Write the structure tokens for this entry.
Amino acid sequence: MGASQSTNSQDHLPSKALHVLRVTSSSPASQTNIEPFFDFIVGFEGETLSQDNTIDASQLERIVEQHEGRTLNLLVWSGKSQKTRVVPILPSRGWSQSAHLASTSSSQPSLLGLSMRMCEPETATENVWHVLDVIEGSPAESAGLVPMGDWILGKLQLSVP
């Protein structure tokens, strides 16, 4: 289920998307290659984005519910590769049924196992840096950063007097 393919039809950056913040272990999303912080859900296969090129979260929720137990092809834009890929996922509540039964919450368990928030991908990826080199004896080496393998996620914060 972790297979995905890149698609050229939507490699452009949408103005709004659902930023993946967490993938819950043992969930349908954990069986895919969706990466927290780097990936953005921009739609689903067969969808035509609205005129302002944004995802409709409530529409996506309805589509996910309609695909419970059936494969849904999500369109996922990567902040790393700057490309959109198709990620097949099988929405299901079965993975979380035991945890839900123990809970006193009346809400339904998640079908995907993703924590997301609506955002503007352009600004969400402004402060992401790929570690290209680590100088011997540097604080980066002491911290264990891996050249070409690590990424730094940050937010610049300016102090205004």
Summary: The mean pLDDT is 79. The helical segments are 57-66, 97-102, 121-124, 139-142. The chain is about 15% helix and 25% strand. The longest helix spans residues 57-66.
